[in-house]
Design brief:
Structural class: alpha/beta
Number of helices: 17
Bound molecules: hypoxanthine, zinc ion
Number of strands: 8
Low-confidence stretches: none
Radius of gyration: 18 Å
Length: about 325
């Protein structure tokens, strides 16, 4: 069979998807209308044509503007149902979904509306399509640790509806150390811990995500190859990297997709996975990421099987439940 067909057909887990980054321009406009919000863009086409990014920050500015149409529990539900339906088309059988509560609570949206809307979408998608989906609460690293602590407190009444914490937003200048105490508290609570590190930031941020925050996975992590000791550490511990090729290309982390280091990460023995990050903004869902990065870098069927296997190994699904996919 052709390699793209194998990539599309193989069962896989998605572990790095920001639900706010799945909000398509059409849904942004529909929600704006439903909620009586006026957007600073005249049309879906005008909004989409603003999606030209030079780095992470230039993306984040427009990503937070897009999320401003989300007000009610039903909005969060509709957004997550749309993503999960799209993921099913890509043969995603399990998704661990990031959400950014501070983006919403700062606008007066109740934490309960965010968590209940997303969680109900996960439940209904499972009942309808069999896809399993869990939620990971991300702290915004451009805000203070105090703000992260307050967010954690607000979310704890619904701790049964999410499985862990992450760290996202503007990386450079906001090292993992800034959040050492709140992540220590999260670990005490038995939450899973992940962190974005080494997207634009240096290998030192990956070291501190591991050693200061206790991250079980590194989101992006593509800068790790600049540090041979770090590669050795990640390989021997099988610490997963959730890599997002189209994101890295669109945010100019690599000049072109053919320059992406995914094949080198895999060939170094790292547990790298492929993910979509913010598919509505970066021009592709999970299978688009796979098909395009394979075409650009000349990876083989051996890499495809390795990536599918890595995605389940790297997931937080209990080992006994993973066996159905491995
Ligand atoms: N990096 C940091 N923050 C983010 C990203 C990302 O790729 N996507 C959404 N928030
Ligand atoms: Zn991300």
């Amino acid at each position: 069979a052709r390699l793209p067909d194998l990539l599309r057909a193989m069962p896989k887990a998605e572990l790095h998807i920001h639900i706010e980054g799945s909000l398509e321009p059409e849904l942004i406009f529909a929600l704006a209308q439903r909620n009586g919000i006026t957007l600073p863009y005249a049309s879906v086409e005008a909004l989409r044509s603003a999606y030209a990014f030079s780095n992470l920050q230039s993306f984040l500015d427009i990503y937070y503007a897009g999320a401003s149409v989300l007000l009610h529990e039903q909005d969060f539900y509709d957004m997550a149902r749309a993503y999960l339906a799209r993921a099913v088309q890509d043969n995603v059988v399990h998704a661990e979904i990031f959400f950014d509560p501070q983006t919403h609570t700062a606008r007066g949206v109740p934490m309960e509306a965010v968590i209940h809307g997303l969680h109900r979408a996960c439940q209904d998608a499972r009942a309808e399509s069999g896809i399993s989906a869990t939620l990971i609460l991300c702290f915004l690293r451009h805000l203070s640790e105090e703000d992260a602590f307050a967010t954690l407190e607000q979310a704890l009444p619904w701790q049964d509806k999410w499985i862990g914490v992450g760290l996202d937003s503007s990386e450079v200048g906001h090292p993992p150390e800034k959040f050492a105490r709140v992540f220590a508290r999260c670990r005490e609570l038995g939450l899973h811990v992940v962190a974005h590190a080494g997207e634009e930031g240096p290998p030192a941020y990956i070291w501190s995500a591991l050693d200061v925050l206790g991250a079980e996975r590194i989101d992006h992590g593509v800068q790790a190859l600049r540090d041979a000791m770090l590669v050795q550490r990640l390989a021997q511990s099988r610490t997963p990297l959730t890599v997002c090729p189209l994101s890295n290309q669109k945010l100019c982390v690599f000049p072109e997709l053919k320059d992406h280091n995914l094949p080198q990460l895999l060939d170094a023995g790292l547990c790298a996975t492929v993910n979509s990050d913010d598919p509505a903004y970066f021009g592709g869902y999970l299978n688009d990421n796979l098909v395009q990065v394979f075409a650009a870098t000349g990876m083989t069927a051996r890499h495809a099987y390795q990536l599918a296997s890595n995605s389940f190994e790297a997931s937080f699904v209990p080992e006994a439940d993973k066996r159905q996919w491995q």
